[in-house]
Fold Universal stress protein.
Amino acid sequence: MYKSILIPIDLEHVEMFPRAVEVALQLLDTDGGKIHSLYVDQAKAHGITFAQLPKEITAQAQQETKAVVHSLFKQHVPEALRGSCHIRRGVVYDEILEEEKRVNPEVILIAAGKPGVSSYLLGSNAEKVLRHAQGSVFVIRDNHTW
């Protein structure tokens, strides 16, 4: 079916990544394909600063995040199907849409919780990606309200 799939990783809802990979495995062409991943560190984008912390601590936190993201990717995506796994800094939906331009996947698989009251006011990353992506977007629902 599809040759290239992008799955954003959300470390606050890490349990959704294996579910998304399961769906991707069902959607990939029987001749193979590639699963790409992206984690977006949004700390600076939303005004969260580490200015008071020593640079060594922030560097260590970034290295730990990188290790977790790459470990998650390697643990759940079969080696023959692994594409790129990137970490970017910025606003989640903006970076996902930029990664779509770079990787050019046929499908983006993005997790979303049940809509809560706050999503009516703020909108979710999944909704913004769904509206603005150039290709297809599949939303994988979690039963919890985010």
In short: The longest helix spans residues 55-76. Residues 49 and 67 are 21 Å apart (CA to CA).
